[in-house]
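Colleagues,

Please find the record for the two-part complex below.
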Amino acid sequence: MTHEHHRLLPIALHIDNSIVFTKETFWIQLQWTKAHLLAMNQRSSVSTVPKTNPLRVGFIGLSATKGWAIKSHYPAILQLPSQFQITAVLNLDVETSKSTISKLKLTRAKAFENIEQFAQYDKIDLVVVSVNVPNFHQLVVDLFKYSQGSPNFKYLFSEWSLGRNLQEAQEIYQLASSRGIRTIVSLQGRKSPYVLRAKELVSQGCIGHINSIEVSVIGGFYGYERPSKSPDYLYDAESGVNLISMAFGHTVDILQYITGSYFSQVNAMIFNNIPTQALIDERGKNMGQEKSKSAPDHLLFQGSLKTGNVPVSCSFKGGTPVKKFTKNLVFDIHGTKGDLKLEGDAGFAEMSNLVLYFCGQRPSEDLSTSSAETMEVYHLRNYNSMVGNILRIYEAVADHHFKTNARSKLTENYTRQGFQFGGFPTFADAILVHRLIDVVLRSHDQKATLPVPDTDNINAPQDVPPLPD
Amino acid sequence: MILSNELTRLKLAMSVPSYQTFEDIPDRLQESYTEVIRDFKVVYGHNAEFVTRSPGRVNLIGDHIDYVDFSVLPMAIEHAVTCAVKVTPSTEIPSVTLTNSDSRFAQRRFDLPLDGSDISIDPSVSDWSNYFKCGLHVAQQYLKTRFAARFPADTPLAGLEVFVGGQVFTGGGLSSSAAFICAVALAVIRANTGHDFKMPKQELTQITAKAEHFVGVNNGGMDQAASVCGEVDHALYVEFKPELKATPFMFPKLKNSEIQFVIANTMVVSNKVETAPTNYNLRVVEVVVAANVLAAKYGVALGRVGNSEKTTLREFMDAYYARYHGATEPWNGDIEQGISRLTEMLKLVEDTLAEHSSGYTLQQASEAVNSSMQEFSRDYLTNFPVRFQVLKLYQRAKHVYSESLRVLEALKLMLRESFASDLEFFDPFGQLMNESQKSCDEMYECSCPEIDEICKIAKANGAYGSRLTGAGWGGCTVHLVPLSKVDDVREALAEQYYAKHDMQGLTLDDVVLVSRPALGSCIMEVGS
C-alpha cells in the first residue's frame, strides 16, 4: 500500500488542472483520485501541532447549554486545540457568552455585547456563525460592515443555509467575495466517510454508468406532531428553514457530490397537507394542543443530472409518523455495472451514521482474482457523525491554513470545492444549492419543468470530469 | 482474566511491576528508559514523571484463531513501546500532547472533554493518535467503574504530555498496536491514580483486549495478554475459554542445543486497519459465517458469543458435542479431548463446506444459513466494513480447526519432560510450524510471496520450522533455530533476501531479531 502510494504521488502532483480528460487519461485520473483519497485517510504524518499560532476563532452562537454548535463545532475544535483557539464569543445576550466561557474554560476568550464590538476585535482570524437562519443575514451584513478595519479576519465559516432565500444568500456571497476572505459552509455531508466511499466507488467506475437514482428522506419536524419546545420559525414558510432548505438542501448536495454532476432540469411539487400540528411533550405524549404550520410537509422532486441525463426521483416526507417498512433515508443508485445504496435510520445524511451497500465491479485497489461480483458493506459502528463530519471540515481548513499536508494543497484560485475529494465546501458551493432550491420553488409555482441555470459563472477549477465511455 | 502459575516454578507477580528507582530497573531495560526520558526532556523542556513500557510479541503458533476462542502460543519480545509521561497541572484545561520518536508519526494535541465524556475516535481515518485514544478510552472506563468515587462520571481525567519511543516495527506483525495501547492504558491509569497504585495484570489485559475494536479491527485478545503477562524466559499459553487465561512456561531443556526463535521482517508493511475490509475483518466474518453454516447443517442452536456476538467455531464444536455425543460441559481445554474433538470437526468441515470449495457467493451463504440476503447482510456484514467476491468458508474453517489442533500438539511438545535426542523436539515442532505456514498460505490466504521466500531461505540454512507470525499479509516471520545455527540463518537471509530488498535505512540487526522471551508491561518511576 505504502509503496504504491509513493509511486502515485508524482502523478498526483504533476496533473495540470487544464488537462482535458479523455479515455486515455482516465487511468491517470483514477490514480489521481486514489492518491487524494490516501492523502485524506492516512493522517499519521500530518501534524496537528503547527509551529505557528493557532487560528483565533470568534464564535457567534456558541452556548454551553443549548444549540447545535456545542454538540458539533465545539467537540471538533477540542480535538484540534493547537490549530483552533476560541478567542471571542457572541450571543444574543452577553450573559450566555460569559457563562459559556466559564463553563468551557475558554480562558483566552472574551465575551461580546454586540456584533459591532465583536467585528472590531482584532484577535479573530476565523469567524464561525452558528445562529438561526432568520437572524443570519442581518448579522453577517453587520459583521462585514463593522469589521472593515479588522486586518486579521481571514475566514468565515457559516452553517448551511446562507439566508432565508436565494437573494439573501447572494448578497452574503457577494459581500464575502468582494471582501476577499475565504469562506466555508457546513455542507458537512461532503465529509461523511460514507459519502466519500460512495463517491470513490462511483468515480472508480465500479457501478459503470449511472442509470437511475431514487432518494427517499424523512425531514423530521414536519409531520403530524411537533415538540412543544420547538421554535416557531421552523414552521414558518418565510423563515427559510424548512424541509426544502434542510433536508433537500443537504441531501441534494450530497447526491451531486457523489455523482459528480449538477442537475440540468428539475420538476417539483410542494405540499402543505398538514396545516396544523399536534403538540407533544418531551416524552412524546400528545398535549391536546395544536399549532399552525405554513412550511411544507412533503416535497416531490424529479430531475435529470447533467452528466448522462440520469433520471433522479426523490420523495421527501415531512416527519412523523416514520416509515414502518423502509429506512428513513435511502439513496439508491443504479449503474450499468453495479448498484450502490446508502441507508440511514435518521433522515439527515449529513449528520447520521449510515450503512453503505455496494455490489458491482471490483474497486481498483482490490487485488482478488475471483470472477464473481464484488460485494461491499461499509459501516463504522463507533463513528460519531455529528462531530466527525464537522471535524473533517476543520481539518481541511487547518490543512490549508497551516500547509500541513502538501498533498491536500488547494489551488491558488480555490473558490469552491465542486466535486473534488479534498478541500472544503465554500459559499460558492452553497450558492449553487440555493439556486437549485430556487428552481424547485419556481417549478412548483409555475407547475413546470425548468432548466437549472448554468454553473459556469461560479468557477470551479478542478471539477472531476465525467467518466469516459 | 486469570494469570496462572501452574506451569512454572517462578513465583509470578500478579500486578504490573513498578520500579521506584533507577537501580531497581532490570539492566536490559535501563538503556531504553534513559533514552526516552532524555527525549521527553528535549521535547517538553522538563522532566517526565514516569515511563510505561509494554513489549511486542511473536506468536510461535496458532494464528487467526484467537478471535475464535482457541488457545495460542505467543511470547513477549524485548522490543517494546515506551511512553514517558508527565501529568499537567489540574489548573489547566486537560489536554493531551503526543510526540513520537518516529517522524512518520507527527505531533498531536487534543483536549479532553470537560464533562468527562468519551473522546471520539474516527475509525475511517488511519491516524496513530487513534490507538492512543483506544488506550485512553478503556483506561477511563476502567477508572470510572473501579474507582467510581474518585473519578466521578462528569469530570475529565488529567491532562498529559507524552513522548512515545519504540522499537516495535509498525505494521510488522509484532503487534506494535497492542504494545502501544497497553503502554498507554497503563500510563493513563498510573497518571490518574499515582505511583502507589498496583495495576493487576489480569485487569490490564482484560480492559485492553478489545480496545482495538474502537479503530475498527475485530481482533482477539492474544496480543494484549502476551504484552502484559510476558515473563523473562517464558513463553505463554493463552486460553480464551472458559476464561481468558495466560500461563507462562519455559522452553524444554535440550541435551545439546538451545531453542531459539529468530524473527525476520519481510519489510512488507501490513496495516491491519487499512486493509481490514478485504483481509483481517473479512476473515473474522468468514469464520463466523462458517460456524453458522455448520450449525444450520447439524441443527444445533448457537448462542451469541464471541467477537461479533454471533458465535464462533469453538462454540459450534461444543454445541455439536452436546447434541450428538451427550457432552454435558463445553470443552475445558484438556489436550487429548481437544485433539479428538478438533479432528472430528475437520471431518464435518469436509462433509459440509467442501462442496463450495471455490467460495460461497452472498446468495449461497445466505441460503446456507437459511436467511434472505438482506437478513444476512444485516446480521453478518454490518459490524465492520467488509468487501468480497466470495466467502471461502471451507478454507477458513479448515484452517481454524487444524491450526487449533497444531497448537495442542505444539503445547504437548513444549511440556514434555525429556527428549531422547534434540531432534525429537526440533523435528516435530518445526513440522507443526511448517504446516501452520502452509495452512496460512493456502487455506487462510494471509501469506505473501516475501514470506514464502524468507521461510524457504531459513529452512535451507538451519531452521526446522518457519512461518509467518501475527496477522500476515506481510510483516514478520518466525523461525525455530538451534542456537548454533542462528548465525547461518541470519547470514543467509542477509545475502539472499535483504540484499535484494529495500532496507529502508535499517540494519540487519533491526530486521532480524533473536529475542529471548521478555518481560511484559512495567512502570518505571523517574526519581526527583
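Chain B has 16 helices and 15 strands.

Comments are welcome before we finalize the supplementary table.
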